[in-house]
Amino acid sequence: MGLFAQAYKITYQRSYNDKVTPNEDPLLVFTNAEQTVITSEKATQSSARYPYETFFVDRKQPSAYYRLTNFSADNELATLDSAILNRNTLALTDETKKILGYTCKKATTSVNSNSIEIWYTNDLKVKGAPNELGQNLGLVLEYVRNGNSKITATKLEKIPHIPSNVAFRQFGKTVDALTYQDEVWKSRFIRIPVFQNEQINFSDQAKSDSILRFASGTVILKKVKIPKLDKGSQAFVQLIEKSNGDAYDRTGSVFLIAEDQAQSFLDGMQKGMQTLPLYSNGDGENYPGMARTEGFSPIYELMRFFTPFGVSHFNDRLTLKGKTWQDSVIYRQDISDFLRVMDGKEVYIGTYIGNYDKGGHHVSVELTIHPGNSKTDYPNVMSVFNTTNVMEMGGQPYARFFREEKGLEVSFVLPNDAENVQLRYITTGHGGWGNGDEFVPKENSIYLDGTLAFRFTPWRTDCGSYRLYNPVSGNFQNGLSSSDLSRSNWCPGTITTPTYINLGDLKSGKHTIRVQIPQGEPEGSSFSFWNVSGALMY
Questions:
Q1: pLDDT digits (tens, 9 = 90+) for 191-206
Q2: Are residues 229 and 100 in the same domain?
Q3: Does residue 2 belong to any structural domain of this protein?
Q4: Which site among 54, 81, 114, 240 is 20 to 30 Å from 265 CA-CA?
Q5: For the domain that residue 20 is a member of, what is the CATH number?
Q6: Contact, 30 vs 50, CB < 8 A?
Q7: Which domain holds residue 418?
Q8: Which candidate, 276, 296, 253, 532, places its Cα nearest to that of 407?
Q9: Among 150, 112, 152, 118, which residue's Cα sits nearest to residue 133?
């Protein structure tokens, strides 16, 4: 560094609608003729929360812009990303104003449809900015986005030199910009892999020692460790699916086994489904493992999804002009509702796809948990019913009992008075071909303690939006594809999102939920059925 290079330290504050952001870590810029460093007050004091990022401009080179992230005290990663400095064209104007006593000129640009104003001064003969924009114009003292979000210099100090613990230096590990961006992004949340390119198919041949397989290979299960989490965190489940030989649209479910009572769904998977409590409503059939009882809890359904018609495996079977089939389906859903039953525990996560094909499907499943700022704790959650027969090949029949007026009736016990109780309800209708409940709207009615709580008709009319995920969907003479057709709350290649039903404040003790759906009559060998799952949140 030049012996007489004058250095400056500039302190900035963030504001929105002219209200200063409270409890912020002040943004700092250190600059002289040879380098600029963008950091924060806590980072210079080694008290910033990991991971944190620092930016360097080496002005001895032509616009060399480095990004450095510290993941921990002894783990860092850097990249040279100079292209970012020239990514946006700046328009210079004649408008001026005073900031901290210095005359500043205005430049403008647009970033991702956001209008940007940059106020910079040339009075100090140095360059710098609180971000990458305007680094080579002069010293930027204010950055304004959309007229209301600001980064404004509040203090400018002459200093003898840029402190050694802040100044530019050689970095331990440097990678390309794309790798750097990916590693930094992933470091900001918890990633919990569950399944990686696992096969779900109709076969009794085990494929992996680390994965439990049930129901002739149509269900896979794994125990995963969830770390202790901060309050206010958010959790997501992501599943990537490709056909490996099965051409049909199939029901799928990602689920968590409830282990809050003496008997769990895993017991039935291992010992036989008939060992679980049986539900019967007078239709002459017994349905194991679907309804809560004293001593048993059904599974928590994290995500209901439906495979499309043969995505990936059958992409070369039909070529359409101007259309390109998707390579896979990515399903992603917020499952923060279930964090209380996962937080700091080892839990069983499973995935089911009902199919009869030896090739079946390939799936990858991952949980991601993202830190939050809220101090609100997670809600209590109780699994009440789940009629999706994930153990179809293991002796769990289709839920056809809605043909009886009683439908599904389940009792549960609240240990304490509960406020703002909600039922997280997922429902999809199936079967019966053209006149069955898959293609005929049917009203769902939910009763609490004998009183109607909610009534609606679940129906999807947007299935045609997912045509490019369905390469071998059946095509009709009228120009429609089977995947275009509206259905009872699902489409091939989509998630069915939960409906949240407000049950109000409930007293401790026993309560009863009844789900009533006017299920259609069988037609020959075809029949209708309904997959419904319900979990209480309070």
A1: 999 999 999 999 987 6
A2: no
A3: no
A4: 240
A5: 2.50.20
A6: no
A7: 189-537
A8: 532
A9: 118
- Pair (154, 195) in one structural domain: no
Task: Give residue-wise pLDDT tens across range 143-188.
Answer: 999 999 999 999 999 999 999 999 999 898 999 999 999 999 999 9
User: What single string gives the DSSP state of each residue in 127-184?
Assistant: -B-SSSTTTTTSEEEEEEETTTEEEEEEEEEEESS--TTTS----S-EE-HHHHHHHH
- Report which residue type is found at 19: K
C-alpha span between 150 and 144 (Å, rounded):
5
pTM of the model: 0.91
Using CA atoms, how far apart are residues 303 and 300, in angstroms rounded to an integer? 9
**How far, in Å, CA of 408 to CA of 283, rounded?**
11
Q: How far is CA 179 from CA 25, 37, 131, 149, in A?
A: 27, 22, 21, 30
Question: Percent helix, strand and coil across the chain, each rounded to 5?
Answer: 10, 45, 45
Minimal CA–CA distance to 218: which of 10, 13, 395, 421? Answer: 395
Check: CB of residue 290 under 8 Å from CB of residue 280.
no
With a cut of 70, say whether residue 436 has pLDDT above it: yes
The DSSP bridge partners found for residue 426 are: 533
Separation between Cα atoms, residue 359 and residue 352, nearest integer Å: 15
